[in-house]
What does this fold into?
Amino acid sequence: MIELVKVAFRNLMQQKVRSLLTLLGIIIGIAAIVALVSVGDGLQYAVNQQFEMLGMDKIMISPGSPKSPGFSGLAFGGRALNDRDIKIIERVGGIETVAPMIVKSATIKMGKETIYTYVAGIPTEKKFMQMIEDMQGYKIKEGRDFMESDKYVAVIGYGVYNDLFEKKVRVREKIKINNRTFRVIGIMEKIGNPIDDYTITVPLEASKEILNTTDYSYIIVDVKDTEDVSKVADKIKQELKKDHNAEDFKLQTSEQLKDTAASILSIIQAIFVGIAAISLVVGGIGIMNTMLMAVMERTREIGVMKAIGATEKRIMSIFLTESAFVGMIGGVLGIALGSLVSFGVSHAASIYTSVAIKTIISPYLVVGALLFSMVVGIISGAYPALRAARMDPVEALRWE
It folds into this structure.
């Protein structure tokens, strides 16, 4: 076996440029797969960590059909949620807190500039605020958070502070939201989610006035005991459905949201890995082409080997070892490149989006990628190897 590897290496080194070009397809394909899988696993890990940090004792309710995709406070369709629904939910046992939120777009003016962005109204009582802020991951960068007595004040997202106006919006600056003057009391740290970063948060009662609504975009329920979340969720669904005479709302627990997020990430990851695998097919075609050319160039050599007693199995082994060797080298270099890319993506994400993505390169991924690249090499080299093995030695020796 060692002798076959030495022969394969020597033959590949005779055509360095061709071998390098053949390797490129495998390197790019394996690198893309390793990078996408490792970053995808990192995202899955980050999502799980985020949900564990926020707790699995939350239930989110929004208007709209339960069959409509996703979960969003901006959902359309279905009957609006209101104070009547809050009272119904509060009557269900096992609940710690019920916090409504309003999210709608609004006109924002500062000086002579006018922009449009989302305004979120949240309760300013401490117990409600803490729950909502934990859910959204809010952290104050500058200024202060709301107090219960606040009304016409605003806490702005990092994007509003930094991007939406010609000059940065400062604490104590006055802005107009739908023609009502608000004083900026705080600026959020960058979250990395464009919706949150470009949202202006105001007290709930003020949002009802400026957005001209008493309906809620969604309701967050904090359950006393994590083990009772499913039972409480079923009871809330039952009570709301009875009152609405229809299931015209979406209800999801933290666990369901976590599973949904994980499923979406897995699907996206699978699609991108599938696309990346196409380059491996191209790389495999490159190996086949290279090996066919090698068979043609070494026709007389094959004839000599057969004339002195080399079996078809021996000749096939030589060419299959060469193609597997190409796949293995491409796999090793691809794994190295893919690892560098995934670490680069994680680093860039932490700098530019404030989203911490841990690069996860498992031993299974490394071994799997290496074996996969070798299998691609062997499959691609099978036809050229078979063609070489079945050559007529007399015809091969006549080849010029």
In short: The two ends are 31 Å apart (CA to CA). The first strand starts at residue 58 and ends at 63. Residues 69-76 have pLDDT under 50 and may be disordered. The chain has 13 helices and ten strands.
